[in-house]
Amino acid sequence: MTTGNKFLNYSGDLMLGALVPVHRKGQLGTDCGVIQLQDGVQTLEAMLYTVGMVNRDPHLLPGIKLGLLAYDSCNNPTHALEQSLDFVKGFISHLNVFHEDPDFTCPSGSPAVFRGGADQVVAIIGGLSSAVTIQLATLMHMFKVPQVSYMSTSPALSDRMTYPYFFRTVPSDLHQAHAMLGLLRRLGWTYVSMVYTDTEYGRHGWELLSNLAANYSVCIASPAHRLDKEYFTDDEAAGVVLNLNATEAKIVVVFSESFHSSVITLLRKARDMHVLEKFTLVFSDLWPDKFIERPDETWQPKLLEGSICVHPVSRTINGFDEYFRALKLDHERVNPWWRELWQDFFGCRDEDNPKGHCNDPRATVASLNDIRGSREDLQQARYLHFVRDAIWAVAQALTDLHRDRCHGEPGLCPAMRHIQGSTLRDYLKRVKFNDVNNQPFTFQNGRDGPPRYSVLNYHHDDDAAEPGKYLWHPVGDYTMSQDESGPALHVNSSKIRSRGDAPLQSSTCTPVCEAGHIRTRVRDACCWRCRRCGEFQVRHNDWTCEDCLPGHRPTANHQECVKVPEEHIGYSHPWAIAAMAVASFGLVATVLVSMVFWTHRDTPVIKAAGRELSALLLVAELASFLVTFVMVAPPSSTTCGLTRFSLGFCFTMSYAAVLTKTNRIARIFNQCPGAGPKKARYTSPGSQLVITALLTSVEALINLAWLAYEPADVRDHFPSRDVRQRICAGLDDTSYLVGLAYPLVLIGLCVVYAVKTRKCPGGFNETRHIAFTTYTVTIIWLAFVPLYLASTSTAIRTVTLAMSLSLSGLVQLSCLFCPKVYIVMLKPEKNTKEVVMMSTCHRTHGSTGTLPAHHLTTNPLMKARHEARSPCASELGSDMSRAITASLADHDEESSCHGH
């Protein structure tokens, strides 16, 4: 269908130009389609109604009549440019008249003028779609004519450099994107699919939503579906439906102009494939309550049931409904498209009946209000107040300009006959007036309308007289907050109804993670799954876990790390009790042995053992057992220092005494008999104690230097992530073994001297005992040291050291003291000088038996000869027999202690 060269000319002193989509965009190669009521004729009538209000207002343009020159854009950018050519001619004509040297003149010499009112146009109102408006804004820039749109929302139009003469009374889609994303977030719809048309409006809408979605934690399923063809086929629609159905998203955001043909095709295909019920649609533009192009299809409202629309705020122009419904057929004198609308309402065409019964007297005298019962499409379009604001803004700017130029003189003064576009633009930037709700209106950033949106929900009207009637119901808004700090979203979710009144669907790929869980991304960039933090991790933020420090573990909800209870070995520890039991046994045994030695200190066996060194050895054993109680005590600087010092010191004191003792015996009994009786040096008890003290002082100096270099301290030890032990520093490594190096050298020397004294008299011969002691202690340490090194438990390490000390002490007690205690207590007949002095070789070498003790005592010669066999006997101290005479020393029998 074509509209020809029709245009509306409502004459006035100053004219407003307008481009209105009276008809829909055509199909199959045509520029224009069917006539539109709300987006077309009703919008045009709203302009006429507002111009009439301006002309009746005494405060606006006093003495000046505002007129309107309107063309049909058919919502088609190409057709709109063609219709704009008349405006261009008018602009050129106007400049030609007021140019000092006209470019075009008539034969009479007067400037050429384009008739029809276009030369009086001072501003353009329109268009509706962004695609048409962008083409028109580019043209207006060339001629420097202000343009005010009432419904174009593309963010591209906010570019001040590209479109310096553009204004609009609606907000930019940037605000709409914020409103839509805020709504999705408020309703918990964080995973949505996206469909948009391949138009200026649709593409910019998609870009805005995709760029801002992350700020609202909303994820748009990939890919977004672009309806990129004007003639969208069923096969293409089926492919889009299948892709939408393959995702988990139950919400489909449709960024498209109202009633776009490709979107209608997509919705019908989804219905035919029985998947439409699975989705809730969120539109960026308001769709009509009924698809008036095919009123016979009663199912059509079902396509939109449960849908939500975020649309520029819906308000009504007071008095417009009465004005519009009272119009009759004779209104075609003003509106050239009125008859076509009239015929559409009556359902008749003049070409259908040569008599033209649309000219029936009943029809000519009727108004639209009279046929309202048959058609219900007369309700006021929800955005007409933006049309009113656009015209009112220009009228107010012209009024302000008139006040400044005409100085209160009514009518069109000479200074107002030529208005430059740049001047009117500056007045428009500063314009202020009240909208239809008596709220202050001013252009945001000097060009955009303030953010004003309504949130609408499409469902049946319970209060309607006709059952099953579907309408858009307001459920919220997105407007400036009262403190003017910015726009705020208000939604009453309880009023929102889904398809079939079912509960609102859930649409998310981002579940709410429980305490102690974090998000891990899957598939789409902003989708996630929940993953529990590790056993020793806490939730740092939504996406990462953080390890707890050693000795800490997370709380039950993995929100924070707390210290694990401190562990340390103490007197109540089972291992400590076992070690103390062994040490206590050793203490009791040591005390008993000490009592025996003290009681029988003057007997030969005790004397031969060396009373002073034996006493020192018993003190060392006693200290070894006592150290256990220090080692298993709760760690402190004092106990740690005592443990490190005593561990090697007790061993050193024990084996220094044994070494001194074996060295003394070896030096006495291994003298050569040919040299005569010669007393060995440093064999007195005092000398022995000094030697032992010197040997022991070496270990004391080592330990003191060690403690000075690395002072004893207590620290935390973490054998595992959830264990925190309080230990002495060094217990968890091999440094404690430093103090045992020197005692091991003394043990080796003891073995050497034990072997050298193996032929000495029985009372002095402790080779077997010392050797057995040394071997046993070595085995103990070979068993316990690897256990110490391999163990990660500081409790076991502590008990290992304590037990090794105790067992070593028990071995020494058993091997070195128990045989003598046995003789003293149970074999007193062997506790004599004769038996003590008896040579081992006389018992085992060169004789058939051992001389009885009474024979030695009754036969002085035999006694002397026996004593002569030990020429060094005089060196045994005052408690032994006197020194053997030199003559007896020349006895032909070789000393039994020499060289065998």
TrEMBL record:
Q: Name one GO cellular component term.
A: plasma membrane
In terms of Pfam families, this protein maps to: 7tm_3, ANF_receptor
> GO MF terms on file?
G protein-coupled receptor activity
Main subcellular location: membrane
Specify the G-protein coupled receptors family 3 profile domain's residue ranges. 575-840
Which positions, given as ranges, span the membrane? 575-598, 613-635, 641-659, 689-709, 736-755, 767-789, 801-823
In the UniProt record, does the keyword Glycoprotein occur? yes
Where, subcellularly, is it found?
Cell membrane
What UniProt keywords apply to this chain's record, in alphabetical order?
Cell membrane, G-protein coupled receptor, Glycoprotein, Membrane, Receptor, Transducer, Transmembrane, Transmembrane helix
Q: Which family does it belong to?
A: Belongs to the G-protein coupled receptor 3 family.
Task: Name it.
Answer: Metabotropic glutamate receptor 6-like
- Say which species the protein is native to: Thrips palmi (Melon thrips)
Its gene is LOC117654112
